[in-house]
Amino acid sequence: MYFQRQLQRCLLRIRFHKVNVDGRRLIQTGPLQSVEENVNVYKPILPSKKYEFKINTDQKSEMVSLYEACVFTNDFVRSAQLLGRIAGYNATDENMYPYIELYLRHLISSGDFMLDSMIRTTRAILKKSKLAGNSQIYAYYFQAALLKESEESGYPVLKRIAVEWRYRKGKVIDILSQTSILSSEQIQKIIRILNIPLETLSNSQLALFGFQPSNPTEINTVKSTVEEGRSQPVTVPSTEHAYIDKIKSKGMRLSALLKSLNNISVSPENLPVDEVSLEKVPSSELVNLARQKLLEKSAIASAIDLWKAEYEDTFQRGGGALPKNKEASALFYEWYTELKEMFNQENKRLDSFYHRIETNAGNPYIAEGFCGPFLKLLKTEKLAALTIIEVIRSISSISTQEEAEETHGVLISRLTDAVGRSFEREFLSERLQEEEREGKLRIRDNLKFVFNNPRAFRAAVKELRRNADENDGKWKHALESWPRYVTTKIGAIAISLFLQAAKMDIKFKRPDTGDITKESVSAFAHTYQYIHGRKSGVLRPRVELLKLIASEFQNPLIHPQMLPMLVRPKPWVQWDKGGYYYSRESIIRLKGCTEQLDYIKEASHKGHLKKIYNALSALGDVDWRINRFTFDVIVKIWNSGEGMLSIPPKNVEVNLPPYPKQALNPNDRVSWYSLRDKLSREKATAHSQRCDFNYKLEIANSYLNEKFYFPHNMDFRGRVYPISAHLHHVNNDFCRGLLEFAEGKPLGPNGLNWLKVHLANLFGISKVDYASRQKFVDDNIAELFDSYDHPLEGRKWWASAEDPFQALAAIAEIARAIRSGNPESYVCHVPVQQDGTCNGLQHYAALGRDPDGAHEVNLSPNDRPKDVYDAVAKIVISRLEQESAKGDEVASVLKDKIDRSVVKPTVMTNVYGVTYVGAKNQIISQLEKRGDIPKDMLNNYSSYLTKMVFRALRSLFERAHEIQDWLSTCSYLISNSLPAEFVKQGHKDKLTPTIWTTPLGFPIIQPYRNFKKRQVQTNLQSVCIEDRDRVASVEPRKQAAAFPPNFVHSLDATHLFMTCLKAKEADITFASVHDSYWTHACDVEQLGNLLRQAFVELHSQKIMEKLRNEFRKRYKNFMIPKEIARRYDLFISSEDSDKKWVPLKIPLLPSQGTFDLTKVLESKYFFS
Question: Which part of the chain is the DNA-directed RNA polymerase N-terminal domain (predicted)?
Fold first, then answer.
């Protein structure tokens, strides 16, 4: 390793000597198109006391969260105090408006206010904010005046407000346009009070305000539009379900899932079709949308009902008293009833506490009183249920007391945050459902632009409440995540109460009398342990509780909103608008770097992400169904209880020899304990896997004969994943074999041959030409028909495939096509996959225009596909033979034991940043499989071989490694840099992450920071949490090591998006698993052409030049320590030679090769 580092450093010194850089620092979030285009400047945020009161940042502050909680719990005195503080730190920020509107809406709804006092308080807050007030604020003034003034008084305040608004050159019609605030009756009343002539209003305005327009036809059109979706016949697709043998589980996990899945086949009269009739979906999809709404509802109520039912059942079977061996759900219901009452008492205690400090200190956010408003956001029934669910979820993977001790139980710091987050999620879910109920027949506000356009007006009525935050933004600001401090504090209160309520009866033998005695004891122990050298609080369940639930909670509950959708997902139109209809999802899965959301919001606002949105929407539009043939075979295997392939057996035999009591050698007893632990883990793992299979099978069973969809979003690098959990095509072979396209297409002239190629690939026959792959299937046609006719009773040829369940699905399709007598007309549903050849190396070869590397990864045309793993293995074998000839004993042993399988994992992951230790472990694993190398020599041999593989890779892909080195160097320099003004102020923390923009305009920020620890004092214990904010310092080494693989991942994601958009334009079904592209067999050739075109277009954009140019502009006027500049031999001017910090210089790019990128268009095996 030392030699390699010195060699790399020397190469970098030669390549990056005396770099001179100039540029500008400007604003940009879109892709770079020319050397003069601007980029988004990065300026690190420094710690500030004002941060806790700031709004519209990457993370909601604690005080803003507390303010919202006070408003939602009608604590208007405290909320006004907090809002005033927040306004002082957010002067001129128009994002204050939604927070003021939130206060006014809830205050007016309560009816408990004085009109003059409300207006005076609001104006004081606006003054602190340095804002004048908008039409929404004045609409609330109007509404409050209508409620508090009378006809007799003449509405003086309302008229004064109108005069004030006109004085500000505002139009009263702008206030009346806020129909999400003012009802039609209130608007009509205001028009009469202010003597607004009806003749000045258009027909559209009159209709909107509830008046009869002069043109009745227009109103009839509007009404028919509203009723359009309600006249459709309500039918539920018929579904036949298979019998699936359930695991021996008495818990609620599977039952709760089944209860949620029952919504798929609910009777028509129970469907909320009327509630969803105004969504922007075809009328024929209203039934499915109604079922989708039921699926997205909360699962908490059903869980409570289930506990209660089982609790009552145990009473009946016990003759009025609880039986000795209570079932887990009955025990949970006991805890639930006790915990619910404890939450009631805790709320009263916090109320009395706050009233005391309110008169004494006047501080609206003293620590203990801080939590009260948050706990009041939910009913105590839900608080109790959520607490129990999260605790049981956290211990669900612990099957024995020994395992609990090995894993130190459950960390209190994690558990408190998890419980607090569950409260937050449920609160947001309630807000969404409330807005959906209240606003479903509301026309969205601010419709001034459609008043004089009848067509636009009718379109707006038809759209109505397509998106709640588009309608009026009532709850948009309240949907940001609560800070970790908040969730930890309220979670600690919940866990503290839970520990008091969680009791269970334990039987034990009295040592003095020998009698069996029953005693009620705590089901959990709160203790402290040293974990990684740090004292940490843990929650450890009793072994009796673990035994009770060991077979019931092997996997966590999943919210029904994460199931596949029954209707096409909502198209993505904004970073947080798309996917599920009644559940809010973000387009990106953040990994601790919330600042990336700022860049994404700005890019979205500027319209730079339209192609990303269109591609994600297109991926979600692919309709799927369950492959009935594969499903039936899997169900037979499952119900038999026999283990087969990846399906674990129903019962796992544990052959543990007797304990060696008389053994003279102590190692014998140590070995016995080790074997016992190993067998115990294997049994627990098998049961856990079987529970997981049961879960997926039940989902598949419920979706039989259904057409369903998978909404998609991205990780921080742009890689795409389905949002739906468990059953989706990005999962394992078992799940992929169960899925097929719902819309089939005739095979056409070449479709059958592509099916055969696909089947050969699934058997691992992928490194030969297409004709040979087809011949492989033809030569095994008898085995193919046997597998189709007798999948479990025959010779089971399909089971020998590398991906057996996908192979079974392809076998069935080929057999049916051949037996149809006319394969070209046979309608095929099974997706055919085309995979890249070590896709990361393909991108590197294209970036460096490396002819040798391009040849090895099939960028250039070949008669048969090149095998890069075999090429590396041959180089390694050749060098081992050379070393063996020189007398190297290790090389002599290894030279005959190396093949492509040994080096494959390391070659695959090398491009994605595998470390030396990681590669060594991969090679150890492969050598162990051979079974012919002594275990005591594995470590030495694998170390020797790892170095050999790395050298072989570098010699074969030299330009790829040069680019990797350049990327790592740039990232390391950037992460050690600071803006010049920060350096002058004396700041030394490394605050600058690596940021870049993909060719489609997606901004990426690496999330690797040293997040600071923070002590939170709770009534349970002192909890140390991470403040995952933007002021934490970055990790330069992690930034540098991760940048090359992350950059390549962003490129393969961009290639996927570009291909998806081309497929959509060509009307081709397209699905993907990263670098594996799926389509119908008849469209394989067309998709192959499109993905090649997309790759050439992507790499014709001078990606590396644009990246360097972006770095130069983004980080201009940044400084780095002089010792780091010298370490990389960067040019230092004479005027900077005596300074500690010098200007950041971006190194020159490595030279490119001569590979002609257009050759990719001719390469048959680029993707194959």
Answer: 290-621
